[in-house]
């Protein structure tokens, strides 16, 4: 079709169909005519005229649109042939606005379909910062919507059945129409826009209701469209979820009333949008609850300070005076010293040590709260963007203002400042993903929402697919590897086979059963055979580094996202280092430059509005509007920065990151079209965080973890108990599966130690014979012992954490014996305790002995996934009120008792523990059977000192 044909709505064949349609329509009654298509007049010709009138009217209202350059058919075909990312870059770096005024009422059907295809492809990328303007442009484009309404009417009318001869093209068109309407109409509009859009939805539903096209494919799409469009109508009536924000208002901070209804999170089987809304609600409440406690403390000036809370007073928000030369992250700062800033005689900044210590703990991605007084009459929320050592030493933190309430001038005035107790970035990233994701394309819905049992194979696998592993060829859907190919035990081999052929595979690995070894073999096999980048996601940076080190023995084709690696062997895979040596699309560089200039302009405009602030509501509104614009441009820049990293990632076989990083780069997975996602430590990850790592391209999910060990972290115990928010997606699905995959042979613990967990926490946990051959512990009569006592616990004045002075002394004395008398290296010994205060007290005592200064002590939770030859476990709780706190939790008991390889020495009030917990009672009985309980550690030395 030539460009000159753009003015014809139909080609010749369609003209004939239209004339036949009009002749038949004139012969029938008006009500019969309406069964085919919702038309405002008596003929389709008049309908098209009215459509033309509406669209023309919408165009004339927009000044200058008529004079804008239009994309012709040839250019649209060229753009449509590009990849979605290249479509995005091409259309955003054009000399004219691709997203506005491109269609006329008399444009050809091909032009409309091409334009719609391009918009939908870019929309599917869901690029933060760019998605909202795109959807707004669609909502404003009445001409395009009228074109799509007419196309929909034709597709569902049997007289236009010939359109379905290109069935694949028509299905793609319907999916594009559905996507654009669902995504754009899900966001809040003005009342006027709302009414117009509700009318459009009703018109579309009427078309579907009156459809007389009996093709099977038509019926399928009719039902799907009706469900999703009706969902939009219902949401508009009953919910304002599109206006939800993770940023709290003043009222939300001061209001104690929970916004959660207390519904059990493990009860799914909901419509997708309701499922998403529920998780958004719980995420926000989990973030708000500890923050409200901090606000109460600030308002009351109470002496009892919340844990890990610090209030900075008399701070200033200051503008970089070198604004024109500054980078984006260097424009706005918090001056911690404020009006107290002064320099000593040497010109150095004088910051008290205790303030400096707190300052260095604030990380990029944190949310800071500011107010002018303890009454909280106003509020400023700012995210931390820049924490260089140079700035921190001078007492500055780079920030971006996110929200402000009841305050106009924010610069160089004394402010109170504190960080939110819950680290903001993961909440923000996951919440925004849930809010903006397309519910119509929700990945793995059948398992996550509908709770079907996973049995289906990944779509990229067929019965003829041939894999190769260590020289052996096999068909993963039809046969398993031979047992000796990868040196796997029977339960590992079963798990390996099912992981390859189930599109949603869950593997439980109790402590020491070789989860990581199995995971490495699965990843190695997949990257050698499946032609797709593999996304590897873990809960912690330590686990990610550990996993990538093992994988690096097989491949160097790895990239690691995030900057928290502590292992130098992994540093060379960091995306920041690799991106400098990669070829980058020049259009991306141009767009980044354009957005950087846009940011400078928006920031300058915001400063102007601050200077002009006169205290009126109008002036304050202008500040908020300018601030909102700046935030939008800032989000664009963050997105473009990740795009630079995409050009690195697309060449790699393995892309590793933590869940925190993954949630904010979901669109990266869309760009990569990655089919496989593997989660390590899956049982420790919140369900919403798992969901935020998936895309419509995801065809294969493998989750490896152990729900009997640590559960996902939530900030509030009461909310957790009420909602079961700490039940992971892994645990929820695993526990309902009739035939779960479980690793059953452990290699870590001496059998006497493993016996404590067998049948108390795990069923059918066997020990490999190799674990029986560990050496005896020098100068100790046994390798398993519980020193029972009744010496009381204590509580620190400044926080709620507990410690036990008696146990501190005994643990340090035992450590001295093992190092000085039994001649063990400090690397062979690990001290654990459930309580942070106890660890702090033990570390202080260790520092008093030169031979123990390098001995490691940490909390049980932070040692999850790790092991040591000799573990000394201090349990702390000992009181007359029969309280043992979270030592009742089977998950923490499991982790605490499963870290030791050769020997484990526990100290605590075993009588109290047994009285308060059936699990501890069973463990005590097993200890008694092993003759491993007494009031003294089993020392074989006359030099050992006991503190009575």
Task: Characterise the protein shown here.
- The protein is α/β, with parallel strands linked by helices and 948 residues long.
- It folds into 5 domains: 69-186 and 197-232, no CATH class; 310-341 and 350-420; 445-579 and 651-743, Rossmann fold (3-Layer(aba) Sandwich); 586-641, Helix Hairpins, CATH 1.10.287; 746-934, P-loop containing nucleotide triphosphate hydrolases (Rossmann fold).
- The protein contains 35 helices and 25 strands.
- It has a 7-stranded parallel beta sheet.
- Strand 3 (367-371) and strand 4 form a beta hairpin.
- The model is unreliable at 1-14 and 16-67 (pLDDT under 50).
- Keywords: ATP-binding, Helicase, Hydrolase, Nucleotide-binding.
- Residues 726-909 form the DNA2/NAM7 helicase-like C-terminal domain.
- This is NFX1-type zinc finger-containing protein 1.
- InterPro entries: DNA2/NAM7-like, DNA2/NAM7-like_C, DNA2/NAM7_AAA_11, P-loop_NTPase, SF1_C_Upf1.
- GO terms for molecular function: ATP binding; helicase activity; hydrolase activity.
- What is the count of β-strands? 25
Poorly predicted parts: 1-14, 16-67
Identify the strand order in the major beta sheet. 11-12-10-13-14-9-15
Characterize the main sheet. Answer: 7 strands, parallel
Mean of pLDDT: 85
Radius of gyration: 32 Å
According to CATH, what is the topology of the largest domain?
A: Rossmann fold
Total discrete domains: 5
Characterize the overall form: globular
Assign the CATH class of the largest domain. Answer: Alpha Beta
Spatial separation of the terminal alpha carbons? 97 Å
The CATH superfamily of the largest domain is known as P-loop containing nucleotide triphosphate hydrolases
State the share of residues found in helices, binned by percent. 40-55%
From the helix content, strand content and strand pairing, which structural class follows? Answer: alpha/beta
CATH architecture of the largest domain: 3-Layer(aba) Sandwich
The fraction of residues in strands falls at 5-15%
Helical segment tally? 35
Domain DNA2/NAM7 helicase-like C-terminal: 726-909
GO cellular component, one term: nuclear RNA-directed RNA polymerase complex
GO molecular function, one term: ATP binding
Protein name: NFX1-type zinc finger-containing protein 1
């Amino acid at each position: 079709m030539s460009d000159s044909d753009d003015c014809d709505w139909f080609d010749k064949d369609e003209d004939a169909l239209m004339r036949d349609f009009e002749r038949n329509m004139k012969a029938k009654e008006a009500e019969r005519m309406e069964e085919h298509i919702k038309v405002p007049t008596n003929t389709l010709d008049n309908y098209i005229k009215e459509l033309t009138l509406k669209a023309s009217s919408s165009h004339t209202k927009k000044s200058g649109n008529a004079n804008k350059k239009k994309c012709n058919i040839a250019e649209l075909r060229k753009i449509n042939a590009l990849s979605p990312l290249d479509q995005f870059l091409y259309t955003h770096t054009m000399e004219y606005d691709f997203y506005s005024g491109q269609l006329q009422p008399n444009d050809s059907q091909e032009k409309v379909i091409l334009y719609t295809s391009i918009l939908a492809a870019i929309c599917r990328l869901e690029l933060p910062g760019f998605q909202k303007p795109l959807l707004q442009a669609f909502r404003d484009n009445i001409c395009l919507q009228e074109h799509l309404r007419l196309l929909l009417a034709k597709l569902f009318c049997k007289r236009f059945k010939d359109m379905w001869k290109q069935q694949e093209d028509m299905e793609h068109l319907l999916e594009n129409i559905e996507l654009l309407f669902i995504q754009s109409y899900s966001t809040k509009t003005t009342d006027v826009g709302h009414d117009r859009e509700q009318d459009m939805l009703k018109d579309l539903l009427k078309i579907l209701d009156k459809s007389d096209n009996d093709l099977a494919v038509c019926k399928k799409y009719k039902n799907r469209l009706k469900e999703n469009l009706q969902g939009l109508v219902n949401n508009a009536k009953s919910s304002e979820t599109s206006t939800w924000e993770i940023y709290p208002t003043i009222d939300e901070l001061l209001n104690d009333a929970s916004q959660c209804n207390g519904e059990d999170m493990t009860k799914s089987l909901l419509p997708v949008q309701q499922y998403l809304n529920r998780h958004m609600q719980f995420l926000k409440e989990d973030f708000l609850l500890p923050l409200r406690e901090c606000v109460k403390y600030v308002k009351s000036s109470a002496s009892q300070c919340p844990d890990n809370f610090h209030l900075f007073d008399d701070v200033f928000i200051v503008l970089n005076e070198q604004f024109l030369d500054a980078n984006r992250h260097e424009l706005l700062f918090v001056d911690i010293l404020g009006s107290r800033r002064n320099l000593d005689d040497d010109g150095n900044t004088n910051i008290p040590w205790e303030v400096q210590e707190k300052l260095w703990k604030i990380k990029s991605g944190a949310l800071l709260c500011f107010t002018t007084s303890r009454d909280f009459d106003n509020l400023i929320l700012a995210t931390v963007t820049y924490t260089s050592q140079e700035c921190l030493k001078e007492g500055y933190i780079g920030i971006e203002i996110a929200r402000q309430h009841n305050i106009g001038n924010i610069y160089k005035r004394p402010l109170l400042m504190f960080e939110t107790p819950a680290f903001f970035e993961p909440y923000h990233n996951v919440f925004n993903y849930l809010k903006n994701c397309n519910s119509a394309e929700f990945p793995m819905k059948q398992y996550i929402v509908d709770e079907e049992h996973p049995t289906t194979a990944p779509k990229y696998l067929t019965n003829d697919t041939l894999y190769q592993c260590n020289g052996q060829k096999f068909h993963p859907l039809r046969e398993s590897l031979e047992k000796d190919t990868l040196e796997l035990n029977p339960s590992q081999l079963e798990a390996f086979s099912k992981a390859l052929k189930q599109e949603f595979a869950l593997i439980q690995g109790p402590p020491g059963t070789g989860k990581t070894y199995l995971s490495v073999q699965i990843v190695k096999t997949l990257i050698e055979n499946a032609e797709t980048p593999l996304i590897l996601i873990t809960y912690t940076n330590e686990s990610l580094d550990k996993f990538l080190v093992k994988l690096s023995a097989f491949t160097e084709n790895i990239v690691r996202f995030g900057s928290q690696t502590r292992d130098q062997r992994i540093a060379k895979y960091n995306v920041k280092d690799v991106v400098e040596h990669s070829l980058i699309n020049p259009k991306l560089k141009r767009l980044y430059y354009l957005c950087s200039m846009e940011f400078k302009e928006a920031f300058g405009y915001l400063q102007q509005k601050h200077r002009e602030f006169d205290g009126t509501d109008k002036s304050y509104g202008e500040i908020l509007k300018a601030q909102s614009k700046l935030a939008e441009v800032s989000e664009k820049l963050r997105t473009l920065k990740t795009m630079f990293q995409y050009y690195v990632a697309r060449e790699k076989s393995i892309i590793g990151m933590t869940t925190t990083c993954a949630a904010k780069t979901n669109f990266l997975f869309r760009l990569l079209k990655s089919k496989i996602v593997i989660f390590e430590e899956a049982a420790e990850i919140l369900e919403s965080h798992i969901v935020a790592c998936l895309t419509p391209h995801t065809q294969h999910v493998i989750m490896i973890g152990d729900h009997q060990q640590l559960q996902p972290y939530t900030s509030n115990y009461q909310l957790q108990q009420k909602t079961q928010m700490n039940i992971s997606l892994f645990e929820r699905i695993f526990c309902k599966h009739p035939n779960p995959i479980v690793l059953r042979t452990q290699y870590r613990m001496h059998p006497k130690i493993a016996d404590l967990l067998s049948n108390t926490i795990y069923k059918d946990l066997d020990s490999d014979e190799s674990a029986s051959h560990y050496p005896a512990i020098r100068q100790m009569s046994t390798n398993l012992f519980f020193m029972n006592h009744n010496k009381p616990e204590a509580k620190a004045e400044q926080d709620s954490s507990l410690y036990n002075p008696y146990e501190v002394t005994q643990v340090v004395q035992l450590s001295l014996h093992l190092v000085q008398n039994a001649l063990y290296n400090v690397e062979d010994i690990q001290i654990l305790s459930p309580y942070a205060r106890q660890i702090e007290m033990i570390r202080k005592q260790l520092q008093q002995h030169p031979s123990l200064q390098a001995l490691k002590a940490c909390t049980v939770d932070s040692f999850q996934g790790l092991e040591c030859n000799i573990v000394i476990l201090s349990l702390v709780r000992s009181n007359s009120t029969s309280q043992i706190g979270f030592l009742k939790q089977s998950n923490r008991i499991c982790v605490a008792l499963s870290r030791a390889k050769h020997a484990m020495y526990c100290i605590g009030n075993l009588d109290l523990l047994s009285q308060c917990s059936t699990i501890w009672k069973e463990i005590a009985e097993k200890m008694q059977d092993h003759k491993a309980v007494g009031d003294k550690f089993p020392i074989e030395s006359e030099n050992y000192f006991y503190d009575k």
